[in-house]
Amino acid sequence: MPWNLDSSRPIYTQLVERIQLDILAGKYQPGARLPSVRDLASEAGVNPNTMQKALAELERENLVHSARTSGRFITEDTAMIEKMREELATAQIREFFEKMQQMGFSSQKTIVLIEKMMKEGKA
């Protein structure tokens, strides 16, 4: 099933974000070999050249590295992966709190609502 991509944003950027998230979430383990460009492009429902561009960006970020004839592999730098996970989580939390503030909720009220949801088993 093709990935759910938004036509209003550059596709390769969304591919970078999706693969990055898959790495940070543990779908691809440190040191693991990524599927081929063609396989990933087919899975995502995009042109292989677009997927190649996305993977090149992940290489620039040092999340992925190439081994000449063996393909691409996830970094084995688990500290870097964990740091990126925390940075992404922090950004998501910051964005959430900003939206709650725009709706008129203080940080304290937002936390109370989160705790209430957790007690109710909804989070």
TrEMBL record:
Positions of the HTH gntR-type domain: 9-77
Pfam families: GntR
Entry keyword DNA-binding: yes
Domain of life (superkingdom): Bacteria
One annotated GO molecular function: DNA binding
Keywords: DNA-binding, Transcription, Transcription regulation
Protein name as catalogued: GntR family transcriptional regulator
Organism for this UniProt entry: Candidatus Anaerobutyricum stercoripullorum
